[in-house]
Amino acid sequence: MKTVLFQALMVGGSCLAAVSLAGAAPAEVVTLETPVAFGTHVPGLGTPARELAKLLEERSDGSLQLALKEPGEGTAPFEILDKVSDGKVDAGFATAGYWAAKLPAASLFGGYPFGPDAKEYQDWFNRGHGRALYQEMYDQAKVKVHVVPCAFGGAEAGGWFAKEVNSVDDMEGLRMRIFGLGARVVMRLGAVPVLVPGSQIAEAFQKGKIDAAEAYTPVVDRTNGLQDAAKILYQPGWSQPATVFEFLINQERWDALGPERQSLIESTCGELLQRTLSESINLQSAALTAFSNQDGVTILEFPDDIQAALREGWDEVAREEGVRDYLFKEVHEDIEAFRAGGEATAQAGNGASQGAGTSGGAKADAAMPPPPPPGDATPVGP
After folding, report:
1. Cβ(77)–Cβ(92) under 8 Å?
2. Which of 249, 297, 314, 353 has the most CB atoms less than 10 A away?
3. How far apart are the first and last CA of the chain?
4. Burial class of residue 142, CB neighbours in 10 A (0-12, 13-18, 19+)
5. What is the largest CA-CA distance in the chain?
6. Does 106 have pLDDT greater than 90?
7. Residue 169 gets which letter from DSSP?
């Protein structure tokens, strides 16, 4: 059986063109080197990539395979997009929030404060402008990838706390492990974002370096033992009500796959979106029950004034980002209009956003805190 490897071969500084498989015989095997953002052992966050590889191999009778590369096997999570675009790897499985420093609108496709839940994202992708805007974001930035929304990883918890917070005043000076857009929101309540690797959150609590932490989904938090380091968990998970995973393929590789294999990837990812939507709810519910019934964790709801202040803070951050980047504004307005049941404002794919690249527009005053360094077991997540 002939094996065709889609890999970028650098010869004298020039990249050899990918082999076209549009007319390939059914017996030929296409193997896509695919680094992943989370280890495939991580429940809900890493397991979907493994399931995608399994389904594609089965449904193609072995002719379409993903050679999954775990974090640390040559590609760091934050390198995936650039490496796929440059053809250094064939594909990647990650969440768009990783690219927010380069593409501000990217966070809106991976999960953002007070954003859509998984079902709303699925509807926006299927019935709204979601898919077109998603691809448009990469095309405008001249990132040479084809993107397919491919799985849901679940909602993140509201946050682990060393002691109760009963009002907005209790947020003043609170040292909290949180990053990205969420960090900018809590800063408006007086909290101080602290950078802590995912694998060191429990230790940071125990040594008194942090007072609170927004980490991963409840099932991953439990796997990481956070229930042994802090005994108060606040809900709802306002900073990321859903985690969307994307399957990225180098554009030339995608074009060379041909309609049949392209259709297989699209349909399999669509099925995984539906499947993981249900599975992630069950995973998180089971973890929350275990926290309460087995681990002695007290699960509380944020007081009303804190929830209101967090939402007000997010509205301010969203306005700032809309000034910073026009596509962020367009995508945010479109998805919020879709959620409200109104007419979406964006005219995806018709050039309405042309010229709105990530460097255009006025810059907001508030600086975006950098992402924390990755942990050992679970690389820094969405």
Report:
1. no
2. 249
3. 40
4. exposed
5. 67
6. yes
7. G
Across the chain, where does the E strand assignment appear?
3-6, 10-11, 14-15, 29-35, 64-69, 91-94, 145-152, 159-161, 175-177, 192-194, 212-213, 232-235, 244-250, 298-301
User: What would the two tokens of residue 369 be?
Assistant: 């805190």
> 123: number of CA atoms within 13 Å, CB side?
14
pLDDT above 70: residue 21 = no
- The C-alpha atoms of residue 352 and residue 29 are separated, in whole angstroms, by 40
Residue 217: pLDDT band (50, 70, 90) is very high
Contact 210, 234 (CB under 8 A): no
Q: Give tens-digit pLDDT for 258-292.
A: 999 999 999 999 999 999 999 988 999 999 999 99
Residue showing tokens 């997009």: 81
Which of 141-145, 197-201, 358-362 is predicted with the least confidence, judged by mean pLDDT?
Answer: 358-362
User: Quick check: helix, strand or coil at residue 36?
Assistant: strand
Cβ atoms of 321 and 360 closer than 8 Å: no
d(CA 45, CA 98): 14
Integer Cα distance of 374 and 240 in angstroms: 18
Distance (Å, rounded) from C-alpha 160 to C-alpha 49?
A: 28
State CA 31 to chain mean position distance: 24
Instruction: Identify whether the C-beta of residue 313 lies closer than 8 Å to the C-beta of residue 174.
Output: no
Confidence at residue 342, expressed as pLDDT on a 0 to 100 scale = 54
User: In this structure, are residues 195 and 208 in contact, taking their beta carbons and an 8 Å threshold?
Assistant: no
